[in-house]
Amino acid sequence: MIRRPFQMVWLSAALAGVAPPVLAHTHTPAQAATQPAEQTAWGIAGSTDASVRSIEIRMTDDMRFTPASIRVKQGETIRFVISNAGRKLHEMVIGTPGAIAEHAALMKKFPKMEHADAWMAHVLPRQRGELLWHFNRPGSFEFACLVGNHYAQGMRGMVEVTP
User: Which domain holds residue 108?
Assistant: First the structure.
C-alpha cells in the first residue's frame, strides 16, 4: 500500500468543510448561547454569578409541562432544570405571548429552521437540559414547546413575574 500523506491531509480538510451542513438539522439540543446577553421584554440570560433558584420542569408526550404555572419575583434568576419524559423531542421557549405566537408561526412556515437562543432549550427524549434566565421585568410571560404541532396541542405554560 502506498501512503500519500499530503493527499490525506487535503481529503481530511475537504471533508471537514462538508461535515457541518450534512449534520445540521432542526431543533437539536442547544448549549448555552454564546452571543452576548440580550435584554428582552421578558428578561435576560441568567448568570451563574447571581443567586439562582432551581425549578424542575417536566415535559411529556401528552403535550404538557409540569408545572404549567410558575411565580417568580422580579430580579430572580431561575435555573430551569428541564426533563423530557417523552419519546419525542421537546423544547422550552420563554417569551411574551406575542413573541411566542410569532415564533410559532415562523416555525410553522420554516419547520427546519435552526435556532438556539438563550431563552430556549431543546431536550432529546429521556434527557435533561437547563435554561438559566434572569427575570428583571415584571409581567405575565409564556413558555412553550414549538416543535412540530406541540404548541397548537396545548404544550405551554405561564410565568408570572411580580415586582
Answer: 38-162
pLDDT in tens, 30-70: 444 455 678 988 899 988 777 789 999 999 999 999 999 99
CB neighbour class for 151 (10 Å; exposed up to 12, middle 13-18, buried from 19): buried
CATH code at 79?
2.60.40.420
Is 157 a domain residue?
A: yes
Comparing CA positions, the residue from 115, 124, 125 lying closest to residue 95 is: 115
pLDDT in tens, 75-117: 999 999 999 999 999 999 999 999 999 988 888 888 777 777 8
